[in-house]
Design a protein that fits this description.
single chain, about 150 residues, mainly alpha, about 0% strand, TerB family tellurite resistance protein, DjlA_N, TerB-like
Length: about 150
């Protein structure tokens, strides 16, 4: 399954992902952001599980299972660009803003802003086609706890 997703993501002209694979790609992007600063903390893991459970209406075990799949996918994937392009193709703009908000939740889960996390969020926002203004507003909502 992971090999199939990677093959489709790395194809010269990738096709849009089905909803299940789009979930995996989003989850892998969340994991990638959490791992960016070199500290994949239990708080970040719990935050990812909560985001996945809320976003997709999953129970705790199903969210943890999706995150575990995403950890494998993220570790095997060559770059962030393909994740974001796959999500962009599979998710309407308004929901992509929610993706950016979720990414900020993970990046800020440890209570600190890290330059590497800021950089990957800027890149992800750009490749998802989310405007700088919408990304900044998403970060502000997360900062304010909303």
């Amino acid at each position: 399954m992971i090999a199939d997703i990677l093959r489709r993501l790395t194809a010269p002209a990738p096709e849009p992902l089905n909803p299940e694979d789009a979930r995996r790609a989003l989850a892998a992007l969340l994991v990638r952001v959490a791992r960016t600063d070199g500290d994949y903390s239990p708080g970040e893991i719990r935050r990812i599980d909560r985001i996945l459970a809320t976003r997709y209406g999953l129970g705790e075990d199903a969210a943890q299972s999706l995150r575990a799949e995403a950890e494998t996918l993220e570790a095997s994937a060559p770059d962030t660009v393909r994740f974001t392009r796959a999500i962009k193709d599979a998710v309407p703009y308004e929901e992509r803003i929610g993706v950016i908000e979720s990414l900020w939740q993970v990046a800020l889960a440890d209570g600190q802003r890290d330059e590497s996390e800021d950089a990957i969020l800027r890149m992800a926002s750009n490749f998802l086609g989310v405007s700088d203004m919408d990304s900044a507003l998403a970060r502000k909502r997360v900062d304010e706890g909303g």
